[in-house]
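User: Second chain of the day. Same drill as before.
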Amino acid sequence: MDPRLLDILVCPVCKSGLEKTGDELICKPCRLAYPIRDDIPVMLEDEARALEPEKI
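Assistant: Same format as last time:
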């Protein structure tokens, strides 16, 4: 994934910045992990995985 894309992407739920971890983009305030598939971030709330508080 292009690092410049990470600079402009925000969480679709709360509009906070995202952090890349492995094959996911993490939104810490929402505790959601958005998948990256074939170098394309899937920024749909329905596709996001809920994170446990201790995993952040």
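The CA atoms of residues 4 and 20 lie 12 Å apart.

User: Great, on to the next one.
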